[in-house]
Write a structure and sequence with these properties.
10 helices, Rossmann fold, 248 residues, binds nicotinamide-adenine-dinucleotide, alpha/beta, 7 strands
Amino acid sequence: MPYSIDLSGNVAIVTGGVTGLGLAITAILAGAGAQVVMDDIITPEDATPFLEVLSSCDPVPVHLRYDIGGEEECKALVAETVSRFGRVDIVVNNAAIARKPWHKVFDVNVLAQFYLNSAACEDMKKRQYGKIVNVTTSGVASGGGDGIEYNATKGAADSMTRYLGKRYARDGVNVNAVAPGPTLTDMMRGYYGEEKFHDHYLPTMPIGRVLIPEDLAKVVLFLCSPLSDAVCGESILADGGRARLNPA
Ligand SMILES: NC(=O)c1ccc[n+]([C@@H]2O[C@H](COP(=O)([O-])OP(=O)(O)OC[C@H]3O[C@@H](n4cnc5c(N)ncnc54)[C@H](O)[C@@H]3O)[C@@H](O)[C@H]2O)c1
């Protein structure tokens, strides 16, 4: 029997949804028919080129600018989404920061996921249906290299995924995580340059190529769709086998 993913009628929040992996996630969910609300602190001016890429989507994703580093902002993001679009069916907790004071990294990488998950679940429970994806990092499996506060908070988000997965399973809400490996985003291009990124990571990639944002977006799409109904409290390592299979 052929399967396809149709998210028409679904309303999705993607945090950090305007750039990097978030942009690919927004694009793939919108391409499947979901109304996407991209939350991102990026300024409207800086967001313009990214929003142009999405302008042909139907429905067109909407950009909101709540700073999810605070509880009230997280609640307000869910409240505005429900008030404008009537519901929230999907939350992708993608925004993250690194190399800042511990408490700030914890606020964005862990507490924001908790506040958004909790607020969204209150709406999802009414329909006994919802999909939540917490984006972590393959560093939770490999030890990581992006700073202790980044890796430790991602580990907390990974653990919280199982806790919340259990808490909301009977409400029809699947809470899962995706743990991406190093991915060639614009930020990585700027940081390394494309050639250096390849030189650095390609030898460590069992699949023989580096990851691009669409690789991760496809895994997120699966977890946001009814195809993943049986997956609950799970973390999918989406790193091309690097953490588990790389012999280096
Ligand atoms: N890029 C990679 O190689 C890689 C690898 C492993 C995990 N990840 C994870 O994937 C996710 C996306 O990574 P990325 O590389 O695309 O990140 P990025 O830094 O390029 O983008 C993050 C986005 O989040 C937004 N943001 C940051 N703080 C915010 C806040 N307080 N409120 C609202 N928006 C905020 C930023 O404006 C930005 O648009 C993150 O969770 C990251 O930890 C990325």
